[in-house]
Amino acid sequence: MTNAASYLVFTDLDGTLLNHDDYRYDDALPMLAWLKDHQIPVIAVTSKTRVEVEELLQALSFEEPFVVENGSGVFIPYNDQRFDLSHTDVAQQEQHQRLCLGCTYDQARTGLKTLSQRLNQPLQGFGDMTVDELIALTGLSSDDALKAQTREFTEPFVNPGLDAKELEQHVAAIGFQVLVGDRFCHLIGVGAGKGKAVNLLVQCYQVPQGPVKTVGLGNSPNDLAMLEVVDIPIVIPGVKGPHPGLADRGWQIAPATGAKGWSMAMEQVRDQYWS
Question: Residue 125 and residue 102: Cα distance in Å, rounded?
């Protein structure tokens, strides 16, 4: 068996490890257990908040690093000796060591106000909404909407309907980045990004056996930066197939959607590289 301990698995959550419609992950549990047994870290890289990811990892009984808010914050369990953070500007929290790659939430909120003034139109961020308003826009439960508002680094806001390139130019002019989605855009700091967070964790990972190999799994253009920097990029398709922005890059396409496709793709990786 190839030394699986020298591998890291980076995965998006919604529509990837978690099913798009019901957010379940039952089909992935056997593969997750195998990875855990073989001491291969499975690292969530997501737009979700720390509170949302911590709840999922607790349900999975996983104690692994994770990346939140589109590569803005990296959290590593306090007692995890596999990652050497001595060369980083790490903040100690109760359970985690935290690395901030982007900006703070207060800075993002200020940035959204500046952007609103620059565009001369009101912009509605998560911080401007009541829980009921967020529920109406997203369909989240009350509990999940509250968790989605517990932000530390970035501010999602309702898409103002501008051309994506035009919006990106305005955002760059005020010193931020933006990820443009159909319903929501995410205002993030210039130092943040899923690819940057993956590279940082790879650099911090201590493997005495040799170089680190990486697997990445994602389903949308939001995952592009992550998939571009891993050794084995895997696209999880939606019900209509892989996203057009990821389909024609020569990357492995999982044979099914959601957690089932995630598990099947990782089984293919296991059979090819770890057996």
Answer: 18
What residues contact residue 245 under an 8 Å CB cut-off, 6+ apart?
220, 221, 224
Between the CA of residue 1 and those of 23, 174, 195, 206, 275, what are the distances in Å? 33, 51, 29, 20, 5
- 6 with 40: CB under 8 angstroms? no
pLDDT per position as a tens digit, 2-17 = 566 689 999 999 999 9
Q: What phi and psi, each to the nearest 5 degrees, are found at residue 168?
A: -60, -40
Q: Which of 12, 26, 143, 271 is catalytic?
A: 12
- Provide the residue count of the chain: 275
**How confident is the model over 127-143, as pLDDT tens digits?**
999 999 999 998 889 99
Has 80 been annotated as catalytic? no
* pTM for this prediction: 0.94
- What's the pLDDT at 4? 64
Q: Which residues on adjacent β-strands are paired with residue 68?
A: 73
Which of 82-96, 178-192, 236-250 shows the lowest per-residue confidence on average (mean pLDDT)? 82-96
DSSP string over 158-186:
E-----HHHHHHHHHHTT-EEEE-SSEEE
